[in-house]
Amino acid sequence: MTAPLLAHATDYGRMYARSTTEQFSVPSITTVIGQQAHSLDGWFSYMGASSLAADPELPALLGSPAKIRQAVNKASKAAEAYRDQAAARGDRVHNYCEQVALRALGRPHRMQECRDELASHGEQAFAARFDEWWELYRVEPLAPEITVWNKTVGYAGTLDLVARINGRICLIDYKTKGTTRDGTVKALDDKVVMQLVAGMKAEESLVDPVAGEWEPWKFGQNPMLLAVAIGETEVRPQRANPDVLKHHWWKFCALRRVWEMSADVTAAGQALMPVPPPSFVSPSVESASLVPAGAGAGDSGSSLHSTKLA
In which domain of life is the source organism classified (predicted)? Predict the structure, then answer.
């Protein structure tokens, strides 16, 4: 994931500010979508077990419980390491894609530098496949890495690219994907539709991040929403089904509310507090002391007294 200038990492997830001199105020599109429950327990377990089984030092460790514990601890972090490596690779691919668009627009770019960086990590095939797709689809870039804002719902985000393809305005989100055993790019997750429709529903787009200048969003009227999976063997674009967009939008708005309530709960303070044991009246206290003040010896009626919690 790239890091737009107005985005900030916070305790409430990634959030956006209106300018470089203002405080962040709304969550990012991806932070909102991240409120959706999903479990990776099975994947984490598999990655840990696979890492341990593939450790070349494993046979030499079997006679040492201490070294076995060290190997297990290392394997337990395998999923996090893989995730971080995949995120870094995604950043490198996204950076290259952005530079290709900047070059096509005649603006300053670092395309060759980014391509060389991919090559230094053995990832040049991603750039080659992307170049093929770019030429085949005759992509005409309009706005790469454009930050958008929705005041009504309260969120912001950065779109990878707004472009014209075959005369149609397209909002594009790139996803760097691995390759399956049959040599095809791995499938995209349906939640990318939520990401794209949230971009389409923006109300403003950024003009100047330092001055905090924004303008009305001009690409939200019936664009084509494209999720583009970029792999080493192919690039596969997929269009969001127009018939389901409203449902994904409603779900996004519901998740935005979930984020807000979660933030309110976090800001409210400590949820659980310690409870000290109760202090009881000592049994040695004379029973007379339990008689209500003003009660005479001749008073009739039952006196029901019990010890009280302090």
Answer: Bacteria
Name the β-bridge partners of 236.
229
Half-sphere exposure in the Cβ direction for 287 (13 Å, CA): 3
Distance of alpha carbon 258 from alpha carbon 264, whole angstroms: 10
- Tell whether 308 is covered by a domain: no
* Residue 100, both tokens: 């290709």
Residue 40 lies in a domain: yes
Cβ atoms of 29 and 195 closer than 8 Å: yes
**Residue 257 lies in domain:** 7-266
pLDDT in tens, 186-212: 999 999 999 999 999 999 999 999 999
User: Residue 302: which pLDDT band, with cuts at 50, 70 and 90?
Assistant: very low
What are the Cα distances from residue 225, in Å, to 50, 87, 172, 196? 37, 23, 6, 6
Helices 65-76 and 78-104: crossing angle in degrees, nearest 10, is 30
